[in-house]
Automatic annotation (TrEMBL), chain B:
Stored Pfam families: Cyt_bd_oxida_II (PF02322)
Keyword Metal-binding: yes
GO cellular component annotations of the record: cytochrome complex; plasma membrane
Protein name: Cytochrome bd-I ubiquinol oxidase subunit 2 apoprotein
InterPro entries registered for this protein in UniProt: Cyt-d_oxidase_su2 (IPR003317)
Subcellular location field: Cell membrane
Family: Belongs to the cytochrome ubiquinol oxidase subunit 2 family.
Membrane topology qualifier: Multi-pass membrane protein
GO molecular function per UniProt: electron transfer activity; metal ion binding; oxidoreductase activity, acting on diphenols and related substances as donors, oxygen as acceptor
Residues in the signal sequence: none
Length: 489, 334
């Protein structure tokens, strides 16, 4: 494999892995802040137990999110240095803002929250929870603003072959990030909701002590999940319409739509090989005219297909890569403007499908435990625990679709923007040796693998331990000395 | 404006070296100063609430370099690829180890994570010193800013000396910090260790600064280098008199002078090329556009004071010395 493939695999692996922690952290930190607020306002021990229990699971996860995030920031310079030089004038700003405005707040107030129990006044301590949970959202906004600029470059002019920032407000107010941010945040809440439902339902099934804690957690998780899924549909629809306009090839690839249709039908499920460019072998179950509606809010509008888009791209951005030794094997070769269709087509469907399963299971669990009932079947336990994975999968497939769908571009040309502000992925990579990138790819993958095992082990342990595992043990005659720290590593 | 941002980045490095310097030092001294489990927990809890916030200084230094000097960020990070990978792995291990160490009540479990903290702290500190020094002495860059030559181009005698210099500084800084933040036997031991190792641990830093001055020195970087020696000596003298707070502050002055000496020697380059001075990246040719720098200046003008205030408040909240009597019993799910 050459440096380009290795660097792409590394970016893909480290990003998808990082994004397993991030949505749970975002969703859970706000929910925990909410639980703590309920406790401070009502003084109900149930909410205290919820804050402590879910807070502990949040922390186990947070540590991993932080350390895998550092790799993300360094990676742009390490493996994508040509990209960094090209976009630095624009892309670095939101990244630096994330650090200075959001991440400092997040990490400082998280430290205060962890160690501040009993040391800070109750309300100040609660304010720390809100400070770090709000900062996680701000963090997400700045990162998504940076990512959205790659999907839809705005606020720049072209000077000496490089984009130069002309308006930071255009970058921060890019309609792409305004759509991607709610979609991502709702995705985070879908994860947190399913996490609450799955674990709390398992405790109910086990008839653990602290029934009220678990019952409240299931209810909270379900409503959060259902609201999140509704939000995902609305924001996703909005995002899709933007994408038809900004990245028509990505959406045509999401549908494996070979020929332009008017009106266009939405493919629900395909049988056969979607990667065949002639589409002859594909039998698709379709909903007539739905795609037209999704694209343009109009049941009869035209949606362009892959085969008609390719010549347009070739005319605008060339048929062959330039002859340049830095492009390696691709030098002078024809440019393939069609993303990997099986990945985009199925990624799109799996994203929606897993999201729907998560919301459905939440409602089902809510109905099964109505009026104080407790389901006893083994299947219930499996259903609850299994459903935790679904929004994680939905998120991951969503990102794979978004990022793979923009290939072969790393910075996608903006149809209404400045000409020349775009970059092929093949152009973006550092001139490292394959050995260097292979070493880091293997090392990071191994370490991430080991850490995944450790995290699952710890989460399992703390889940099984329930409320008793995280609250001070009152049966033991503990030294109730003012000098003893209420929490220490 | 470019020069201003060069100073901001030097300042972020200063914040990073001063703050994470002591929490690295604590990790490096963990098996030396912590004779039993409770003592090790005392050591870790002196930095528990703050180490994560300290680490963000690095992320912001990296992010600010990307925004203000993309050329510098791209060339340095891609050229020092393998050392940075090692550094990242050390930071990953260390970060999760603090959080996970106490999550299971088992001696073996803690032994493993203690080892990760210890090794991670050493590797990370050596790595910072190596990359920073390689940056000052330069890398074999071509006209495009890409590295020519082996993946180990950043590993030279000078940069290895720099690795030892930063590690030695962190070691003493960590010991001074611990004698300020702990009480009882641990405090005495930390003080004794700081005084005993300082002459050897600080020697590489002195040699490094001499070398930098001989190669690139100007009058005021000489002054800064002398400042490092005076402040470090003063710190140890105050420590010997049990004035730990003053000693810690003087260690801060020492690292501030060191950063001035190193970045002063670098200016107006940001990353010299050892192949041809014409290929060197300078504050002029590696900088972002004036507009981007203006935007970043506004962000920094509002962001930095806020960060200093709330991080300062954190240190105030957790200002008490801690000792073995403060450590609560382990309570984890069985």
């Amino acid at each position: 494999m050459d440096v380009l493939d290795l660097a792409r695999w590394q970016f893909g692996i480290t990003t998808v892995y990082h994004f397993l922690m991030v949505p749970l952290t975002i969703g859970l930190s706000l929910l925990v802040a909410g639980m703590q607020t309920a406790w401070v306002r009502t003084g109900d021990r149930k909410y205290y137990a919820m804050t402590k229990f879910w807070g502990k699971l949040l922390l186990i996860n947070f540590a991993m999110g932080v350390v895998t995030g550092i790799v993300q920031e360094f990676q742009f310079g390490m493996t994508w240095s040509a990209y960094s030089r090209f976009v630095g004038d624009v892309f670095g700003a939101p990244l630096a803002m994330e650090g200075l405005v959001a991440f400092f707040v997040e990490s400082t107030f998280l430290g205060l929250w962890i160690f501040g129990w009993d040391r800070l006044p109750k309300k100040v301590h609660l304010a720390c929870a809100w400070a770090f949970s709000t900062a996680t959202m701000a963090s997400a906004y700045f990162i998504l603003a940076a990512n959205s600029w790659m999907q839809h470059p705005v606020g720049v002019e072209l000077v000496d072959g490089r984009p130069r920032l002309t308006s930071i407000w255009a970058v921060l107010g890019n309609n792409t990030v305004l759509a991607a941010f709610p979609h991502t945040i709702f995705g985070a809440f879908a994860v947190a909701g399913a996490f609450l439902v799955g674990i709390a339902a398992w405790h109910l099934w086990k008839r653990s002590d602290d029934g009220p804690v678990w019952r409240s957690s299931v209810k909270l998780g379900t409503w959060v999940g259902v609201v999140a899924f509704t939000g995902l549909l609305i924001s996703g629809d909005f995002q899709g319409k933007l994408m038809f306009e900004q990245q028509p090839m990505k959406m045509a690839a999401a549908e494996a739509l070979c020929h332009t249709e008017e009106p266009a039908a939405f493919s629900v499920f395909a049988v056969g090989d979607v990667s065949r460019p002639d589409c002859e072998s594909v039998k698709s179950i379709t909903v007539p005219a739905l795609l037209s509606f999704l694209a343009h809010n109009d049941f009869s509008s035209q949606v362009k297909g892959i085969q008609d888009l390719v010549p347009e791209y070739q005319a605008k951005y060339g048929t062959n890569y330039p002859v340049d030794e830095r492009l390696g094997e691709l030098s002078g070769k024809p440019i393939d403007y069609v993303p990997l269709l099986p990945v985009t087509y199925w990624g799109f469907r799996l994203m929606i499908g897993f999201g729907a399963i998560a919301a459905g299971v939440g409602l089902l669990v809510l109905w099964l435990i109505r009026g104080g009932r407790v389901p006893t079947g083994r299947w219930f336990r499996l259903l609850a625990l299994g459903s935790i994975a679904t929004p994680f999968l939905g998120n991951s497939f969503g990102w794979v679709f978004t990022e793979m769908g923009r290939q072969p571009f790393v910075v996608v040309p903006n149809p209404t923007g400045v000409d020349g502000v775009w970059m092929f992925t093949a152009r973006a990579v550092s001139n490292s040796t394959p050995g260097e990138v292979l070493t880091s790819l293997i090392a990071l993958t191994l370490v991430y693998g080991v850490l995944a095992c450790v995290e699952v082990f710890l989460v399992r342990r703390y889940v099984r331990g329930g409320v008793a595992g995280v609250l001070p043990d009152h049966n033991k005659t503990e030294r109730k000395d003012d000098d003893v720290l209420s929490f220490a590593y | 404006m470019e020069t201003f941002w060069f100073c901001v980045i030097a300042l972020l490095w200063l914040g990073y070296l001063f703050l994470e310097g002591f929490d690295f030092g604590v990790g490096m001294l963990l098996p030396v100063l912590g004779r039993d489990e409770t003592e090790r927990r005392v050591l870790i809890n002196t930095i528990g609430p703050v180490w994560d916030g300290n680490e963000v200084w690095l992320l912001v230094a990296g992010g600010a370099t990307f925004a203000a000097f993309p050329g510098w960020y791209a060339s340095l990070f891609s050229s020092a690829y393998l050392p940075l990978v090692l550094f990242l792995l050390a930071l990953i291990g260390r970060g999760v180890a603090f959080e996970y160490r106490g999550k299971v009540d088992s001696a073996r479990w803690r032994r493993v994570w203690d080892a990760v903290i210890f090794v991670g702290s050493w590797v990370a500190t050596l790595g910072v010193g190596l990359v920073l020094t390689a940056n000052v002495f330069g890398l074999p860059l071509d006209a495009n800013g890409d590295r020519v030559g082996s993946p180990f181009a950043a590993v030279t005698l000078e940069s290895l000396l720099g690795a030892l210099a930063i590690a030695g500084y962190a070691l003493v800084h960590g010991a001074v910090f611990l004698s300020l933040k702990t009480e009882g036997e641990v405090r005495e031991r930390a003080r004794a260790v700081a005084l005993r190792i300082a002459p050897f641990a600080l020697l590489p830093l002195v040699v490094l600064l001499l070398l930098v001055q001989l190669r690139f020195g100007t009058v005021w970087t000489y002054a800064a280098a002398i400042g490092v020696a005076l402040a470090a000596f003063g710190a140890l003298a105050r420590l010997a008199l049990r004035r730990e707070g003053q000693a810690f502050a003087l260690m801060g002055v020492a690292v501030a002078c060191a950063v001035v000496a190193l970045f002063g020697a670098l200016y107006p380059n940001v990353l010299p090329s050892t192949l041809d001075p014409a290929y060197s990246l300078t504050v002029e040719n590696a900088a972002s556009s004036p507009y981007t720098l203006t935007v970043m200046t506004w962000v920094a003008a509002f962001g930095t004071p806020a960060v200093l205030v709330y991080q300062g408040w954190t240190y105030w909240v957790f200002r008490k010395r801690i000792g073995t009597r403060h450590i609560p019993q382990v309570h984890v799910p069985q």
